[in-house]
Design brief:
Blueprint (H helix, E strand, L loop, with lengths): L4 E3 L4 H7 L7 E4 L3 H8 L7 E4 L10 E3 L5 E4 L4 H6 L1 H6 L1 H7 L5 H4 L4 H7 L6 H7 L3 E6 L2 E6 L4 E3 L2 E2 L6 E7 L6 E8 L7 E12 L2 E10 L6 E2 L1 H7 L6 H14 L10 H25 L4
Parallel strand pairs: 1-3, 2-3
Antiparallel strand pairs: 4-5, 5-10, 6-7, 6-10, 8-9, 11-12, 12-13, 13-14
Helix pairs in contact: 9-10, 10-11
Length: about 290
Amino acid sequence: MSPFELAEPTSLGQALALLDPNDPNVRPIAGGTALMLMMKSGLYVPRRLISLRRVAHGIDRIRNVAGGALEIGAMVRLSALQHAPELRHAAPSIAKTLLTHSNVRVRNVATIGGNLAHADPHMDLPPLLMVLGASVRVAGPNGERTIAVEDLFVSYLETVLAGNELIVALILPPQHGRRATYLKCTARAADDWPALGIAAALAANDGIAGEVRIAIGAATATAMRLRGAEAVLEGNRLDDNSLRQAARAAAAEAPVVADQHGSAAYKRQLVEVYVRRALLSVWGGEAKGDET
């Protein structure tokens, strides 16, 4: 790797002051699991890295906040998130998804803020967080703003964050009976990079679907909601026919891309199969009385 400056600020304000919005070779580093691989391969050559390790105090906690929401500090490590009792109560689908997110060595180092800021479409959490209605709290020189996770990603490895902004927390709203699941298709091991990731959430009232959310990752250039497919199911009776219609709509809507995991045609077929499976999973979850 090429030489670079490593700054270690001790406060969030100091970290923000060290960022340069006009220099792409100045970046923050949290867990660094993805960034270090990019540096070792020569894909990214930094001039300055700003370590958030000593800034972690205050943004490395999980707490309940007003309105029943859960606030997860950006420096919370994925392994801590996986085992947090607060999360298992609020959104057990996240804890379940983290079981096969990369491997335990990565989860012990990677942070939730870094995971989202990296914007890799192959990550498991963004589609799931989208259907759960999560948002991020972002700090910058002009104060803080809140961004829905579904609005965070622009393109491959690109977010709406300015070069002098940092994610400080993930906000998970109360689900109020809505159930969610995340399914992925991998070519090899369960914790391998997925060829497709599908998340789905809904609430059912007397067999009628409401608050339907469907999101896709891995097979597209960025994680995104499939709003057309959601509209097909929203307000309609949950049955095999309506789920199949929503799955077909998702396959037609998703802007899938071909890569080493398969052709676009193959991935469209995967989308239809996995959307139906995900919807069946959350629909069945209602009958069993728990979230999948």
